[in-house]
Amino acid sequence: MAFETGTASSMADFVASIDTFLVAEGWTQDEATPASGIYSWTLGLLNVSVRWDVVTSSPSPEHLALYQALGYRRGVKRVAINAAGTGYAVDDILTVAGGTSTTAATIRVTSVDSGASDAIDGAVLETAGSNYTADPTTTGNSVTGGTGSSATFDLTMSGTVSGVPGQFCGDCGSGVVSALDSSLDETRSLYEIGDGPYPSYHFFTNETGVNYFYCALQYSSGLYRHLAFGNIEKKGDWVGGEFVCGHTHTNASPTSSSNCVLLDGRWNQSSGSQENRAPTMRVEGLQSYGQVTDGQWGECNGDATLGNLKVATDRDGTARTQLLGGFKANMFAPLFGWVRSNVANGFVPMYPIAVWFVSTSPSTIRLLGFMKDVRGINIAAFTAGEEVTIGSDVWVVFPAVRKQNTAVTDESRNQGIAYLKRT
Questions:
Q1: Which among 119, 207, 214, 409 counts the fewest CB atoms within 10 Å?
Q2: What are the distances in angstroms from CA 271 to CA 277, 310, 311, 314?
Q3: What is the reported pTM?
Q4: DSSP, res 292
Q5: Among 380, 336, 331, 376, which residue's Cα sits nearest to residue 353?
Q6: d(CA 394, CA 416)
Q7: Residue 331: CB partners within 8 Å, gap ≥ 6?
Q8: In the chain, domain spans
Q9: In sequence order, what are the residues at sequence separation of 6 or more whose Cβ sits closer than 8 angstroms to the Cβ of residue 11?
Q10: What CA–CA distance (Å, rounded) separates 198 from 214?
Q11: Residue pLDDT, tens place only, 59-84
Q12: Residues 218, 201: contact at Cβ < 8 Å?
C-alpha cells in the first residue's frame, strides 16, 4: 500500500487515515487518543507525534502540530561503550537489560576489533525503547543478544514517564507543549487547514529501502498543504537522517522567508517563537565539522548569517546545528524552478531537494543527502494531481499551495512538488 488517495470529513478523520496507512506500512502506533487530539508513531529512531486542538469549540483556523523525537515517552537517547566484551560481529543487535518498558531499547554494533577477540569498538543506538516507567541500569548495563558476550554500555535516558508530544525521548526542541490552538499556531504544523471537510489527500511511501511518508492534502478547493517525515538518502559517513517537515504559508510570494514547506532552507523567522515551525533532522557524528559534543539535532533555518540559529537547543538543552534545506534555498531551485515543461517533447525538468550541514567554526557547508522520491517542479504546464510518466516512473504533481498569481496570500504561482507514485 505504497500509495493512497481519499477524502476526509474532519481533522480527526484525516489523522485516523494517516494512522491506518502508517500501521499497514510497518510503523508502531504508540498512542491513538483522538479525544485528546494526539496520535504518535515510531519507526526505528523516528518518533512522530501529532496534536490538534480539541479544547476550542470552533477553532478557526486550526493547525495540525507535528513533533519529532527519538522514541515514545521515556527512553534511551544515547549510548556509550563501557566494556567492549568479546566475540561480537558487525550489525549484531543488542538489547538493553532491565527497567520496565513497553519495548526495550536496542543497540547496533558498527565495528569490532578483530585483533582483540572481536571486542566492540563502535556502536550506535538502534531504537530508543518506549514508555520506560522504571529506568534500566544506566552505568554498565549488561546488554543481551548478539554473537558475543560481556559487553556493557552506559545509557543516557530522556523523556517523561507520562507526557504529551514535546516531552518524549530526545525531543528535537521544536513545538510547544500545549493542546491549545493559540499555542499550536506557533509550532511546526500543517498551518491553517481548518477542521475539514478535506476534498482530497494523497499519501506516498516507498516499498523498500529509505523509509518516508509524504502527504499532499487539499484542505480546501484548490488549496494544498504538504506533510513529510522519514529518512533522507544520506551522503557520507554520519549518523541520523530522520526528519519531520510541516507546512507554513503566510506570504503571497512563493520564495518568501515567511513560508516553509518540505526541507526548506529559505525559512528565516526571528520573531516570537515562530522559529518552532522549521523542519528538524537528526544529525550526529559531525563534531570535526563544528557540531557540538553530544549534538543530535539540526534545524533548517535560512538566516542570512550562517550559524545564527533562532532556536538554540533541543528539549534536553543540547545545542542544535544549522541546516539548509533545499526546496527553495539551494543551487537547484534557482536554476530549474523557473523552467517550464514541454510534455509533448518529453521535457519535464525537476530538481532534487537536498539538505546541507552548516557551521561557522570551522566554516563548513557539507551535503548530507536528499529527500527520496520527491522533486521540485514548475507546474505551469500541469494541473493539480496530474500524473506525469517519465520512463517507467509515474510522478504526481501538485502546487506548493495554489496555482495562482493574484498577489493574495494563499497562492504559490507555478511553484510545484512532484511525488513518485509507487503502487
A1: 207
A2: 12, 9, 11, 19
A3: 0.94
A4: P
A5: 376
A6: 16
A7: none
A8: 3-72+163-420, 75-158
A9: 52, 62, 64, 193, 194, 195, 196
A10: 17
A11: 555 889 999 999 999 999 999 999 99
A12: yes
pLDDT of residue 269: 56
Cβ neighbours for 223, distance < 8 A, ≥ 6 positions apart: 401, 402, 410
Pairing of the two strands 363-378 and 212-220: unpaired
Q: Phi, psi at residue 410, to the nearest 5°?
A: -85, 65
pLDDT digits (tens, 9 = 90+) for 81-94: 999 999 999 999 99
Q: How many CB atoms lie within 10 A of CB 233?
A: 16
For 237-260, how does the pLDDT look when each residue is reduced to its tens digit (9 = 90+)? 899 999 999 998 888 777 777 788
Look over the chain and give the mean of its residue pLDDT values, rounded to a whole number. Answer: 89
Question: How far apart are alpha carbons 146 and 324 in whole angstroms?
Answer: 38
75-158 CATH fold: Thrombin, subunit H (2.40.10)
Residues 6+ apart with CB under 8 A from 405: 411, 413, 414
Tens of pLDDT, residues 167-225: 999 999 888 787 666 677 778 889 889 999 999 999 999 977 679 999 999 999 999 99
Spatial distance between the Cα atoms of 57 and 311, rounded to a whole number of angstroms: 32
Q: How many CA atoms lie within 13 A of 31 on its CB side?
A: 23
Q: What is the C-alpha to C-alpha distance for residues 216 and 369, in angstroms, rounded to an integer?
A: 22
Dihedral over alpha carbons 144, 149, 154, 158 (to 10 degrees): -20
Give SS3 for 376: strand
pLDDT reported for residue 53: 85
pLDDT at 272: 46
CA 167, distance to chain mean position in Å, is: 17
The number of residues in the chain equals 423
